[in-house]
Amino acid sequence: MNSKTFPIQVRFSDIDAMGIVHNAIYFEYFEQSRLLFFKELVGTKWDWSTHGVIVARNETDYLEPVFLNEDILVEVFCTSIGTTSFSLGYKLMARNGTENRLKAKGQSVIVCYNHETKTKTAIFDSWKELLYAHRGDF
Hints:
Elements: E1 4-8, H1 25-42, E2 52-62, E3 71-81, E4 85-96, E5 99-114, E6 119-120, H2 125-133
Antiparallel strand pairs: 1-3, 2-5, 3-4, 4-5, 5-6
């Protein structure tokens, strides 16, 4: 699997009354990683208005709680590619020395979208090869 891995900072505001990262914050971690994934794959200079994306679905499996001082990484990879949409998978891990412990995993369905015409579009040709190169699975 040719995935990309990004560090995530756990902020004090991410912690709930139980002393763990609140469940909704995981989606923010996935979103941060997804944006970094796009940035590495296609750069920052694309026209969001005509070559945009929208999230059609998000899901998460919470395996273990994440705590404030943990060193967190999110691995991002493409799990499927369709005509107008693709799915990205996420593995949220806590780094402990040389080992990474899986804390959560998730997936997003991303639809390519033209915000000017308000219509979905085919996956951008420039992205297809990059997505195929980063295919992976859980």
